[in-house]
Amino acid sequence: MIRNILFPLAFSCLVASQLSAQTKEAPAKYEGKPSPSRILAVDSAVTTRHEVTIKGQRIPYLATAGSIPVWDDEGKPLAGVFYTYYEREDVKDKSGRPLVISFNGGPGTPSVWMEIGYTGPRILNIDDEGYPVQPFGMRDNPHSILDVADIVYVDPVSTGYSRPVSKDIPGSKFFGVNADIKYLAEWINTFVTRKGRWASPKFLIGESYGTTRVSGLALELQDQQWMYLNGVILVSPTELGIERNGPLDAALRLPYYAATAWYHKKLPADLQGKDLNDVLPEVENFTLNELIPALARGGALDAAQRKSIGARIARYSGIKESVVQENNLDVSTNLFWKELLRDEGFTVGRLDSRYRGIDRKTGGIEPDYNPELTAWLQAFTPAIQIYLRDELNYKTDIKYNMFGNVWPWDQKDNKTGENLRQAIAQNPFLHLLVQSGYYDGACDYFNARYSMWQLDPGGRLKDRLKWEGYRSGHMMYLRKDDLAAANDNLRKFILGAIPAKGAPAKY
């Protein structure tokens, strides 16, 4: 997830560990030390036992919640990184058991979103379309990928329970495109070593800014940790440092506009009567073959051409032609979210445009707030508090940061897309899966496809690159049908990216 409203916190550290057993009928008592306090346990572990039924199969598993240090060059702890680790208990030989390392984005958010919304064995209570319901709480996830892979969810520094050991530790150690990648690669090395998972096939999955993170980590792990991956999964990917300014940036939004207008029934009757999958190819072809060249010509377009292009943009976006022309054929996302349902008194969401909001006034050029984000925070925040304390038995009075202070974030030298390309080229075992929601306006699906095309401009890696679209938004898995389909596709991707025993990594 992407958000820039962040707040600072810092704590010192101490060490605690324990092993306890837990069932849903009789939660384990907390017997370890320290007692709840606002002191970070920089090296801690609390393990509980559970089971879940996935695809009709009973899966016993261990869940470990804890933190592992980040060290400086002298071996002194700089921070404690909080994680939750789910390990299938009835698999004794881990050498062939995949390990999935999971990150969310922000860059200032923890891994809560995919952990209790997507791939984990327990998910939050929401309705079938992803809206909050009460009472808040948790339920089993019958679609979790835990049947085929162990999973660790990682909270970068200042998110979740992760904290620097002191307020004197400079944020530059953690808060930047490349600093983030560097310390997390070191942390992954420590985790994999402690858990004895060097032989396991390894996968990175990231959502939103987490896709920037894992794209950079793929090469960093190879080059600096000598750790080679089998797969990288990008969920609602960012631009990955791939430039697309000017006419290209303006044009690539249109297919997302069309999908959202189709959902809200704002397209002309001939388009509205078609299935979404029949509408989008027409819009995509217009975008690539006509709109980009037209916008590149700018003021050189004659009146007839400008009129024709503006009419097509209006037809596909659901926005009045007069508004399109007033904005020189370039309707910003903020204006689109405000304008599409203006006549009905609603705005549409940024991260998931199926959601509607109500502003103070219908006038203006951007919405007052993001209705989807407020809904998600309402659902996820109590659920993760209940889950970590009552089910995973991790007791602390440290505030769980749904959005943490990682400002200022150093955006310079973002070459993560190119780094991912290099990692795939250098490692014949490495595969890529991209998952996008058609109604995501922050990291839209057509920009995700464009990024994947630019990762492989020569077309020589395309057999290992795959893109998938879903009829939901940024967190496509919150929709019940997409939760099932997306996890099934992850399962197929993970198993398909593991080579036959003894097969060499070579071209």
Automatic annotation (TrEMBL):
Entry-linked Pfam families: Peptidase_S10
First and last residue of the signal peptide: 1-21
A biological process from GO: proteolysis
MF terms in GO: serine-type carboxypeptidase activity
Keywords from the named record: Carboxypeptidase, Hydrolase, Protease, Signal
Classification via InterPro entries: AB_hydrolase_fold, Peptidase_S10
Gene3D superfamilies membership: alpha/beta hydrolase
Protein name: Carboxypeptidase
Organism: Chitinophaga tropicalis
